[in-house]
Specification:
Elements: H1 8-13, H2 21-31, H3 39-47, H4 51-62, H5 66-72, H6 81-104
Helix pairs in contact: 2-6
Length: 105
């Protein structure tokens, strides 16, 4: 797609069609130009096997360490963390729902 040479052996390993309908929609979502932040995180969520592992991933994504939050959001005081976590939860929930809606409909 970007003019990067790809070995023939690698090209032969790529299936012609996705294995399932959901996988096909997920590929379309990732390759499309929809304005959904976190498409890669959503795709990874669907590739993780097991509900417990998926739950751990979602919790880690929504509630990263306080140190990460301080750096990522430029917080100056730890008392700002609670509101930042709430905003992050709302934002990722909204973006995740947009992605899931595009996958299902």
């Amino acid at each position: 797609h970007f003019g990067t040479p790809v070995p023939e052996e690698a090209i032969r390993r790529i299936p012609d069609r996705p294995a399932s309908k959901l996988e096909g929609r997920l590929a379309d979502l990732l390759a499309g130009s929809e304005n959904i932040d976190g498409k890669e995180s959503l795709a990874l969520l669907f590739t993780i096997k097991g509900m417990r592992a998926r739950l751990r991933y979602v919790i880690a994504l929504l509630f990263p360490s306080p140190e990460f939050m301080m750096i990522q959001y430029g917080l100056s005081h730890r008392r700002q963390l609670c509101l930042s976590y709430i905003r992050r939860l709302i934002y990722f929930t909204r973006e995740g729902l947009k992605g899931v809606t595009r996958l299902l409909f």
